[in-house]
Design brief:
Glutaredoxin; 5-stranded mixed sheet; alpha/beta; 4 helices; 28% strand
Length: 105
């Protein structure tokens, strides 16, 4: 299951992680975000132990969203060693996320 990332735990779970981290910036009212939900959850199971897969609700966590300039959702940011290494804006097929994850693991 994807972990819940918040303004409070972002540094601990993302910036300080020694693994590649995928953060899905989403909101409950966003149709494309809800469509991506199962794809994100499947990746969390598939990459358990190899990468960190998390979701950040932009409505409840505005600080991180603003810090990274997230204006459109869903936005998926990929981090390694606390730095953004890749970005995906909008709903995409599973294969796109798999390719991006595999490239950075």
């Amino acid at each position: 299951m994807a972990i819940e990332i918040t303004d409070k735990n972002f540094d601990e779970l993302v910036k300080n992680s020694d693994k590649t981290v995928l953060v899905d910036f989403w909101a409950q009212w966003c149709g494309p975000c809800l469509a991506m939900g199962p794809v994100i959850e499947e990746r969390a199971k598939e990459y358990d132990g190899k990468a960190v897969i998390g979701k950040l609700d932009v409505d409840n966590n505005p600080q991180v969203s603003q810090a990274f300039g997230v204006r459109n959702i869903p936005t998926i940011l990929f981090f390694k060693n606390g730095e953004i290494i890749d970005k995906q804006v909008g709903a995409v097929p599973k294969s796109t996320l798999v390719k991006k994850l595999e490239a950075h693991i």
